[in-house]
Amino acid sequence: MAFARPAQSRRLQLASLDAHILDWPGEDPPILLLHPNRTNARVWDFVVEHSVLKNRFIAPDARGHGLSAYPEQGYGYVDYLDDLRALLDTLGIAQAHLVGAATGGNLALLLASESPQRVTSLVVVDPGVSLDPQLSLKVREQMVREFRFLSLAEARARMPFSALWSEAMKDHYSKHSFRDLGNGEVEWRYFPPGAVETEHLLETPIWDRIAVRCPTLAIRGAGSAVFPLANMQRLCALIPGATSAEIEADHRVSQDNPRALAPLIDSFIGGL
């Protein structure tokens, strides 16, 4: 698919990571987009395409994901947060709007709590603030079991959380999310040990670490088991003035329904 507003693919050397980002030029303050665990920055392409905001958008591949480096260790919250601060410093960004989905939502909440001077506003999309251990175990097992495939067609057909995706979304994401092994087989562009460690981390609640004071919007997929309505209500009660919304989607909201997600983000950030 040819996008009207294509991203620039860039590499950056951070303090402890060779990082890859997608960068859509625009106005300041920028909007920093944080992807879910075991995915990559390409989950945001369609959201940016449907946005009418003139802001610069930046979507990094987290360590162990996409086209960023895959270190053997360092998959705790502190590591991801240090990378985000280093990214902002390297790009010379004093403050940004944060939009985080799933695990990226957890990171956005923690960054806004620990480094409030760096965050203009916050949008969290279906975060795993206290992930059900049984769901976590199922996902962790799937990460390892369904990592390599005999063909790209097989990999495309078995992408998790993709039941609601358009065919264009499936084509685009599969194109950018699998590594060709040269023999017809493909494997995901993520580091399984790191993704498994991160997924297990989500089982530990972070409620006591949330101290957000910037304007905040919490969004959940109406069909999501990862971010139940009760958790969204609890999160909004913790953050003064926070608002919430539901979208017709499952857990992977940015890919299930980017046409509905983009206007919500636009209205919230544009109205500040």
Structural summary, described in words:
The protein is an alpha/beta fold and 272 residues long. The protein has a domain at 8-129 and 207-270: Alpha/Beta hydrolase fold, catalytic domain (Rossmann fold). The protein contains ten helices and eleven strands. It has helices at 45-50, 77-91, 103-114, 133-145, 152-157, 167-177, 192-201, 229-238, 253-256, 258-270, and strands at residues 8-13, 18-24, 27-34, 55-60, 96-101, 119-125, 148-149, 178-180, 186-188, 216-221, 243-247. The strands form two sheets. It has an eight-stranded mixed β-sheet with strand order 1-2-4-3-5-6-10-11, sandwiched between helices. Strand 10 (216-221), helix 8 (229-238) and strand 11 form a beta-alpha-beta unit. The protein starts with 7 loop residues before the first strand and ends with a helix.
What is the percent of helical residues?
A: 25-40%
- In the CATH scheme, the class of one domain would be Alpha Beta
CATH architecture of one domain: 3-Layer(aba) Sandwich
Strand order in the largest sheet: 1-2-4-3-5-6-10-11
Query: What global shape is seen?
Result: globular
Radius of gyration: 17 Å
CATH topology of one domain: Rossmann fold
End-to-end separation in angstroms reads 32 Å
Largest sheet: 8 strands, mixed
Number of helices: 10
Q: What is the fourth-level CATH superfamily of one domain? A: Alpha/Beta hydrolase fold, catalytic domain
The average pLDDT is: 97
The overall strand count is: 11
Order of helical and strand elements:
EEEHEHEHEHEHHEEHEHEHH
Could you tell me the strand content as a percent range? 15-25%
| Low-confidence runs of at least 5 consecutive residues | none
Provide the structure class: alpha/beta
